């Protein structure tokens, strides 16, 4: 199989060729390995490969599986392969190996996907950029001087760069949707609990994290959800396995009531400034949706953006403190001596100082937002708004400066972290870390599904995604709307130069 043939197809298209006998699994496998070996030194998307093990697994794939022999990559975070490295983007876990496959990995293999390696992520998935100190920094295939976003930045770089047709990601605050927006891809965050995190985890970030993928096509995302959804044994949510996500693309979603917002209640408290290109992308998407026959009305989500940012980061800090304690236990290295980045250490110190009362109050704010959005969706079937306030930043632009890291180091002084929290460190952290991407955390807190659609490219050649949220559990209608827009705009034909 020639490289140009391999790179122009999505996963469903490759599977159809394999199932029809037009190409063999081996041909597709070798094309994928060649793409990674040739282009990843430039892209920096893949932190490790497993070609020899994958070759053996590929030969065991059956032709009747939905992704029969289609190559993919998993994220170097949460997605465990038994006995193989899983570093969570951190030097502290460089030698750690999980004892069992994650449920998601088991289901990917059952669906016929062949896992060729793991993609880059920021340390512990904490940032909206992918610039870990311990691993390569992926570039944005559209403009290499720009970031592919995070935390699934390696996955997005791999798909946009033509290494694989789809790559797995996780989304705890926008980590699938932000890279999808920056890299011109489709990115769906399913409803809370839809995709299991077991057996190593029940829920991550109090249920904010959901795993799925970045893809070029809507149909790949829908078919993957058919293959991976549903609770696993011992899971915390009674989410039964469902079918019909791919089938939903074959039927128009009906006449939808779509709210459109520039996200001001979310961005204004953080001092967010919306780039004119993003505003234009949202307005253009609203016209496209209306042109498809849907009812469009401007309406903001009924939420308190400041309270949401504060509650999100409160849970984020507390969870990080627990993560560092877990790493210390797994590696038998005290937290104070872990090989972690200065920003991670500083945020972990703040998390250790949070009272349990504040942690619980923050979770109650999540419930308030979810109830408000539930009522909002009695009036509207979907909410259209930005993914990020601006196109992809330049690489290095958002990473903490050395001066900032020196200030963070002062939190090691006894009592300093407590004083910092009392002095408003949480509000400053919210402004620093969320001002550029204040629109994606809402769906993680409420649990509802949300997607980024690659509907716009700036004159400078940077993609801009538009986000659509739906009611809890209503992925089918979101996917059907996405398929309508995909057919109307032919976004899959827009690829970076050289792909």
Q: Return the string of H and E elements.
A: HHHEHEHEHEHEEHEHHEHHHEHHHHEEH
Residue windows where pLDDT falls under 50 for at least 5 positions: none
- Strand order, main sheet: write it out: 4-6-5-10-11-9-7-8
Number of strands: 11
- Described by the principal axes of the CA atoms, the overall outline is globular
Features:
499 residues, single chain, alpha/beta, globular
Summarize the structure.
With 499 residues, the chain is α/β, with parallel strands linked by helices. Helix content is 41%, strand content 12%.
Strand-helix topology:
Layout: H1 3-7, H2 11-19, H3 25-43, E1 46-49, H4 51-59, E2 71-75, H5 103-110, E3 114-119, H6 153-160, E4 166-171, H7 177-183, E5 186-189, E6 210-215, H8 218-228, E7 257-260, H9 264-267, H10 276-291, E8 295-298, H11 305-331, H12 342-352, H13 356-379, E9 382-386, H14 402-409, H15 416-422, H16 425-434, H17 441-446, E10 450-457, E11 463-469, H18 475-489
Parallel strand pairs: 2-3, 7-8, 7-9
Antiparallel strand pairs: 1-3, 4-6, 5-6, 5-10, 9-11, 10-11
Helix pairs in contact: 3-4, 11-12, 11-13, 11-16, 12-14
Can you walk through the features of this model?
With 499 residues, the chain is an alpha/beta fold. It is 41% helix and 12% strand. It is built from 18 helices and eleven strands. It has helices at residues 3-7, 11-19, 25-43, 51-59, 103-110, 153-160, 177-183, 218-228, 264-267, 276-291, 305-331, 342-352, 356-379, 402-409, 416-422, 425-434, 441-446, 475-489, and strands spanning 46-49, 71-75, 114-119, 166-171, 186-189, 210-215, 257-260, 295-298, 382-386, 450-457, 463-469. Strands 4-6-5-10-11-9-7-8 form an eight-stranded mixed sheet, sandwiched between helices. The chain has a three-stranded mixed sheet with strand order 1-3-2, sandwiched between helices. A hairpin with a 5-residue loop joins strand 10 and strand 11. Helix 3 runs antiparallel to helix 4 (51-59), helix 11 packs across helix 12 (342-352) and helix 11 (305-331) crosses helix 16 (425-434). The chain is globular. The mean pLDDT is 94.
């Amino acid at each position: 199989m020639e490289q140009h043939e391999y790179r122009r197809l999505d996963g469903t298209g490759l599977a159809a060729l394999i199932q029809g006998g037009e190409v063999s699994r081996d041909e597709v496998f070798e094309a994928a390995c060649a793409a990674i070996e040739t282009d990843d030194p430039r892209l920096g998307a893949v932190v490790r490969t497993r070609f020899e093990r994958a070759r053996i697994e590929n030969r065991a794939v059956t032709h009747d599986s939905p992704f029969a022999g289609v190559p993919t990559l998993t994220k170097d975070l949460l997605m465990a392969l038994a006995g193989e490295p899983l570093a969570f983007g951190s030097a502290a876990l460089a030698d750690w190996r999980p004892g069992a496959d994650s449920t998601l990995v088991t289901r990917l293999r059952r669906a016929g996907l062949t896992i060729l390696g793991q993609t880059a992520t920021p340390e512990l998935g904490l940032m909206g950029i992918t610039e870990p100190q311990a691993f390569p920094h992926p570039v944005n295939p559209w403009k290499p001087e720009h970031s592919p976003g995070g935390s699934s930045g390696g996955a997005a770089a791999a798909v946009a760069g033509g290494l694989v047709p789809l790559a797995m990601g996780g989304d705890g605050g926008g980590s699938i949707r932000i890279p999808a927006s920056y890299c011109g891809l489709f990115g769906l965050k399913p409803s809370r609990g839809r995709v299991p995190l077991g057996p190593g985890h029940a829920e991550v970030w109090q249920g904010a994290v959901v795993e799925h993928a970045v893809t070029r096509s809507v149909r790949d995302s829908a078919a993957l959800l058919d293959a991976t959804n549903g609770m696993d044994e011992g899971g915390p949510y009674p989410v039964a396995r469902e079918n019909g996500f791919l089938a939903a693309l074959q039927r128009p979603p009906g006449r939808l009531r779509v709210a459109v917002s520039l996200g001001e209640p979310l961005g204004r408290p953080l001092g967010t400034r919306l780039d004119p290109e993003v505003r234009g992308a949202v307005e253009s998407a609203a016209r496209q949706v209306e042109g498809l026959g849907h009812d469009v009305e401007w309406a903001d989500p009924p939420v308190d953006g400041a309270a949401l940012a504060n509650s999100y980061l409160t849970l984020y800090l507390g969870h990080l403190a627990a993560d560092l304690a877990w790493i210390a236990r797994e590696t038998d290295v005290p937290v104070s001596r872990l090989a972690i980045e200065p920003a991670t250490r500083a945020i972990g110190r703040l998390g250790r100082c949070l009272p349990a009362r504040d942690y619980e109050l923050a979770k109650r704010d999540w419930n308030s937002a979810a109830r408000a959005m539930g009522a909002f969706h009695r009036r509207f079937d979907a909410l259209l708004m930005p993914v990020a306030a601006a196109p992809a930043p330049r690489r290095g632009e958002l990473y903490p400066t050395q001066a900032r890291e020196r200030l963070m180091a002062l939190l090691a002084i006894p009592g300093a972290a407590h004083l910092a929290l009392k002095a408003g460190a949480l509000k400053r952290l919210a402004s620093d870390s969320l001002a550029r991407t204040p629109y994606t955390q809402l769906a993680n807190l409420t649990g509802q599904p949300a997607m980024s659609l690659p509907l716009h490219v700036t004159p400078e050649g940077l993609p801009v995604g538009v986000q659509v949220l739906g009611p809890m559990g209503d992925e089918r209608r979101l996917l059907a709307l996405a398929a309508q827009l995909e057919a109307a705009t032919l976004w899959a034909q827009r690829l970076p130069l050289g792909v």
